[in-house]
Write a structure and sequence with these properties.
93 residues, 3 helices, mainly alpha, 4% strand, two-stranded antiparallel sheet
């Protein structure tokens, strides 16, 4: 048994992990080039870019878990809600 056989590596799973990795690498490069200062937005605390990304990803996970637990519909609805959530948190959070 190879080290990766314990998980069902489907195409959507691979796309998800590639996207998260790309976001983290991109945020690292952006933070090195243009350091972020904490700012107060719609969230009840001052946050940096990286903290807003983390809060957005955490919320995205809860959106998908809620969608999967409460509905039988396709996950494309959760994708739409998740994209809107990430834009709101990253831009105005």
């Amino acid at each position: 048994m190879s080290p990766l056989e314990w998980m069902a590596w489907t195409t959507p799973t691979a796309i998800f992990f590639i996207a998260v990795t790309a976001m983290l690498v991109g945020m690292t490069i952006i933070s090195i080039r243009w350091p972020s200062l904490p700012r107060k937005g719609a969230l009840p605390m001052a946050t940096t870019r990286g903290e807003r990304l983390y809060i957005g990803l955490l919320g995205l996970a809860f959106i998908f878990l809620g969608w999967l637990g409460l509905t039988e519909a396709s996950t494309w609805g959760a994708v739409g809600i998740g994209v809107v959530w990430m834009i709101l948190v990253l831009r105005w959070g």
